[in-house]
# Entry
Amino acid sequence: MCNFELDPQAFAQRRVEMIALADERRLALVLKPARERRERARRKARVPLVGPVRLNPSPVPR
# Structure
C-alpha cells in the first residue's frame, strides 16, 4: 500500500513504523562492521606470518 492511499492517522502510524525500522537498520549497521573488522584483521595477520616464509625459503639471511 502506498503512503498517499492512507488516511492521516494511518499515514502517521506508517511514518512512525518507518522511522523505527530506519533506526533498527542504523543500529545494525553500526554494530555489524565492528565484528567483521575484527575477523578480517585477524585473518590477514595470520597469512603473511606463515605464508611467504614457509613457501619461499631464502638462503640469504634477513
